[in-house]
Design brief:
It is globular and about 35 Å long. The chain starts with a strand and ends with a helix. Helix 1 runs antiparallel to helix 4. The chain has a 5-stranded mixed β-sheet with strand order 2-1-3-4-5. It is an alpha+beta fold.
Protein backbone atom coordinates (compact mmCIF):
# COMPACT_ATOMS: atom_id res chain seq x y z
CA UNK A 1 0.00 0.00 0.00
CA UNK A 2 1.30 3.47 -0.90
CA UNK A 3 2.14 5.89 1.86
CA UNK A 4 -0.37 8.71 2.32
CA UNK A 5 0.33 12.36 3.06
CA UNK A 6 -1.78 15.36 3.94
CA UNK A 7 -0.69 18.94 3.42
CA UNK A 8 -2.55 21.96 4.77
CA UNK A 9 -1.76 25.21 2.96
CA UNK A 10 -2.50 28.30 5.05
CA UNK A 11 -2.36 31.64 3.29
CA UNK A 12 -2.48 35.06 4.87
CA UNK A 13 -2.45 38.33 2.95
CA UNK A 14 -4.12 41.73 3.03
CA UNK A 15 -6.72 40.46 0.56
CA UNK A 16 -7.18 36.86 1.67
CA UNK A 17 -6.98 34.59 4.68
CA UNK A 18 -7.75 30.92 4.49
CA UNK A 19 -6.52 27.43 4.03
CA UNK A 20 -6.98 24.52 1.72
CA UNK A 21 -5.95 20.92 1.81
CA UNK A 22 -4.03 18.45 -0.29
CA UNK A 23 -4.21 14.68 0.13
CA UNK A 24 -2.16 12.19 -1.84
CA UNK A 25 -0.16 9.01 -1.95
CA UNK A 26 3.39 8.03 -2.71
CA UNK A 27 5.31 10.19 -0.27
CA UNK A 28 5.80 9.05 3.30
CA UNK A 29 8.48 11.32 4.71
CA UNK A 30 8.47 15.08 5.31
CA UNK A 31 11.44 15.46 2.95
CA UNK A 32 9.58 13.67 0.14
CA UNK A 33 6.45 15.79 0.63
CA UNK A 34 8.51 18.99 0.66
CA UNK A 35 10.60 17.94 -2.34
CA UNK A 36 7.70 16.74 -4.51
CA UNK A 37 4.60 18.64 -3.41
CA UNK A 38 5.17 21.51 -0.99
CA UNK A 39 8.13 22.99 -2.89
CA UNK A 40 5.99 23.38 -5.98
CA UNK A 41 3.33 25.24 -4.00
CA UNK A 42 5.85 27.45 -2.19
CA UNK A 43 7.46 28.45 -5.49
CA UNK A 44 4.11 28.99 -7.21
CA UNK A 45 2.94 31.21 -4.34
CA UNK A 46 6.15 33.24 -4.30
CA UNK A 47 6.13 33.67 -8.10
CA UNK A 48 2.47 34.70 -8.38
CA UNK A 49 2.00 38.41 -8.98
CA UNK A 50 -1.20 38.21 -6.90
CA UNK A 51 -2.21 35.47 -4.47
CA UNK A 52 -5.57 35.16 -6.24
CA UNK A 53 -3.77 33.88 -9.35
CA UNK A 54 -2.23 31.05 -7.37
CA UNK A 55 -5.52 30.17 -5.66
CA UNK A 56 -7.41 30.14 -8.94
CA UNK A 57 -4.74 27.91 -10.49
CA UNK A 58 -5.05 25.40 -7.62
CA UNK A 59 -8.84 25.31 -7.98
CA UNK A 60 -8.69 24.97 -11.78
CA UNK A 61 -6.28 22.06 -11.52
CA UNK A 62 -8.45 20.36 -8.89
CA UNK A 63 -5.47 19.84 -6.60
CA UNK A 64 -7.31 20.61 -3.39
CA UNK A 65 -9.28 18.19 -1.23
CA UNK A 66 -12.25 19.00 0.97
CA UNK A 67 -11.73 19.65 4.65
CA UNK A 68 -13.79 16.52 5.39
CA UNK A 69 -11.56 14.34 3.20
CA UNK A 70 -8.47 15.89 4.78
CA UNK A 71 -9.72 15.24 8.33
CA UNK A 72 -10.81 11.68 7.49
CA UNK A 73 -7.49 10.69 5.93
CA UNK A 74 -5.32 8.38 8.00
CA UNK A 75 -2.05 9.89 6.81
CA UNK A 76 1.42 8.46 7.27
CA UNK A 77 2.78 12.01 7.19
CA UNK A 78 0.97 15.26 7.99
CA UNK A 79 2.58 18.52 6.90
CA UNK A 80 1.64 22.14 6.49
CA UNK A 81 2.71 25.28 4.72
CA UNK A 82 2.06 28.73 6.14
CA UNK A 83 2.54 31.77 3.95
CA UNK A 84 2.16 35.37 5.03
CA UNK A 85 2.23 37.02 1.62
CA UNK A 86 2.20 40.61 2.89
CA UNK A 87 5.30 40.10 5.03
CA UNK A 88 6.96 37.50 2.78
CA UNK A 89 7.12 34.85 5.49
CA UNK A 90 7.10 31.24 4.33
CA UNK A 91 7.19 28.15 6.53
CA UNK A 92 6.96 24.39 6.15
CA UNK A 93 6.11 22.27 9.15
CA UNK A 94 5.71 18.68 10.23
CA UNK A 95 4.91 17.58 13.77
CA UNK A 96 6.71 20.07 16.02
CA UNK A 97 9.42 20.86 13.49
CA UNK A 98 9.12 24.16 11.57
CA UNK A 99 11.39 25.38 8.79
CA UNK A 100 11.08 29.05 7.97
CA UNK A 101 12.31 30.74 4.82
CA UNK A 102 13.38 34.37 4.91
CA UNK A 103 11.85 36.17 2.00
CA UNK A 104 10.69 34.24 -1.01
CA UNK A 105 12.07 30.70 -0.99
CA UNK A 106 14.34 29.64 -3.83
CA UNK A 107 14.78 26.19 -5.31
CA UNK A 108 18.22 25.92 -3.70
CA UNK A 109 16.90 26.89 -0.24
CA UNK A 110 14.16 24.31 -0.56
CA UNK A 111 16.64 21.67 -1.73
CA UNK A 112 18.85 22.44 1.27
CA UNK A 113 15.85 22.05 3.58
CA UNK A 114 14.97 18.74 1.96
CA UNK A 115 18.51 17.53 2.69
CA UNK A 116 18.23 18.65 6.32
CA UNK A 117 14.89 16.84 6.73
CA UNK A 118 16.38 13.63 5.32
CA UNK A 119 19.01 13.49 8.05
Amino acid sequence: MAETYTLCVQIESHEYYGEFYLVGEGYGTPAEVLDNIAADHLLRISNASRIEEYLLDVLKQGENASEGEYNATDADIECWIHVDVSYQRYAFGVDDRVVEFTGEPTKSEIASTVTQLQS
